[in-house]
Every structure is written in structure tokens, then in C-alpha cells.
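Feature request, filed as a ticket because there's no other form

It would be nice if the structure record came with a short human-readable summary line next to the C-alpha cells. Right now we just get the raw output. Example of a typical job, pasted below so the devs can see what we mean:
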Amino acid sequence: MVEQVRYGLVGAGMMGVEHINNLAITPGAVVTALADPTRGSLDGAKNALKDRADGVAVFDDAATLAASGRCDAVIVASPNFTHREVLVPLFDAGLHILCEKPIATTIADARWIVDRAAQSDKVFWTAMEYRFMPPAAAFIAEVKAGRIGALRMLSIREHRFPFLPKVGDWNRFSRNTGGTMVEKCCHFFDLMRLITGAEAVRVYCSGAMDVNHLDEDYAGERPDIIDNSYTTVDFDNGVRAMLDLSMFADGAENQEEIAAVGDQARLEVLIPEGAIIYSPRVGFMNPKRAERRLVAVDEAALKAGSHHGSTFYEHQKFNAAVRGAGPVEVSAHDGMMAVAIGAAAEISAREHRVVEMSELGF
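Raw output as currently delivered:
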């Protein structure tokens, strides 16, 4: 039998419900508490819990949940701009924490979280689901194993749907999200760091809000979030990476396409198709020798969320870390560095210039 872990959830919206659905199929996981000031979100979370909702305590805020003694671990899925405030009582109560990305909307808050996490002997895990999509994980493992030789170029494309509506429309404004390059793209900057095994030294981003949200008005205020961009990142080991983002490409067959090119071969992964394509160098005019295979994803994991099964696999690893049966794979520091690259990209896009990471203290 797997040791039981009692989970609290701060933030019971769409992502909170995805966590609930994945905890339901995680051995030894039991949800014991919810905190959210919005009644509609709490009702949605209770519906997701189904017959498991009986006995789950409901709180208005993180502080009362933290003080309840009902939890061993807490998932933070509240709006981005609330994370630092929410984390204070959770750190003070000595709880294990899985914090949704981005861990903060500013570098200063991210640094504070890193410092507090370092003072705790409990697990702090930044939720970077894209690492744990089975096709992406297999792709990363092959690059790391040297299948393409020495990695020289990395490109990531996400062509997808616009930002979804949120309670109070908080995600329409960069002051609440950190900006699209932080809110959405921290996933990809995290993947860049993971795959290259290096740190960013400079960032150039060309982006704008060209299609989405142009006719929206919130009490006389217009949204200010980037909906498309190209970002290039130079890493300190000489590898160059590029992100191609479009949030008005709803009809794309694959939402994510990642390609790594080494001195011996090219490797790409397509999601949700799940295909990994290996293309060795063959020389000019010689026959192509590409190999294509599909990476399977557990059907229950696919049904439990909208991140191609990744939230399920992430929870198995977080749960193991809480029980002392596995390592922390995505630290607070990892979360901070993804925010830092995103913040540099936001500055670059708005000021139309290259941003050195040293300007931001990295």
C-alpha cells in the first residue's frame, strides 16, 4: 500500500479541477481541503470530487487552510499574482507545496520564493507540466542520451487557441500574469533550460497583440497581452533556441512541435500526435533515412486533464518526493529561471531590443 498523502488545494478553478481529477487516479492521494474565495469555483471543485467531496473542508483563504492541520501537501493553483501572498502561510505551516507556473509574476517575488523554499525541509515543486508529457519526456531523454550528437539548435513552436476566460478576467492584463511571455511561455523557457543543460545569457523577442482581445473592454481598460511572438535565446554553452508562439492558430493539427538539431542528426516531437521523428545526416542527394514512432499515453491520464497526460505523471513524481521516495525534479530555482527568461522576453518585445540576462541580475 502507498502511504496516504492528504492534499489541500488553493485555487479551485479550471487548473484546480485538473489537479483534482489527476489526484483521483494517484495512489494514496486524498483531497482533504479546498480554499477559494469564489463560490462558483468551489462548487465546480466539489462536482469534480464527486462522492469524495464528503468530509472535504472548505476555506476562504490559504491562511485558514494552512492552519487547519488537515493537509500534508498543498497545490497552489490560484491566479499568478496571488502566489507570493498565498505561499506565506503555507511555508510558515511547514507544508509540502506544488505551485503552479509561473511561480510569480515578478523576478523579485520569484527570488523571495526561492529563498523561502531553501529554508524549508519540505518539498517545493514548480508545476511545469510540459516536461512530463510522455512524448516530450521521451524526446528529451533521447537528446540527453546523445542520439543527435552535440545539440546546437533547439526550436519550439506552440500554435494554439487564445487565453481562456478566468474569474474576474484577471488573465487579460500583464500586471496580473507577468505578461504572456511569463504566463504561457515559462513552460518553454523551462524546457529550453532542461534540454540545453545551460543558462540563458541574452534574449530577443518580437511580439505583439495583433488578433485576440482587440474588441474587449474592462471598465474602460483594454487587454495588453501578447498573442504572437518569435523569441530567440542564446545560452551560455553556445546553443541557440527559438520559440514561435501563436495564440490564434486554433486549427493547428499539432499544438506543440519541438525540434533539436545536433551535429549528427535532427530529432522532433509532435504533440498531441505523439510522434517522434529521427532524421540522421545523410549527405547531399542521398536517400533520407528518417525513423518515426509514436509514444503512447495512458488513456486515464489523457482523460484527467488537458495537458496530454502530463499532470498525471507529474503528480506521481511529486507524490513520490513527498513520501521521500523520489527527488524534486522541478525546483523553485527552476521556476524562477523560467520567469526570468520570460520577463526578459517581455522587456525585449515592448522595448524592441535585445535584453542581456545580466541586466536582470542573472
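Something like this underneath would help us a lot:
Residues 332-351 form the longest helix (20 residues).
The mean pLDDT is 96.
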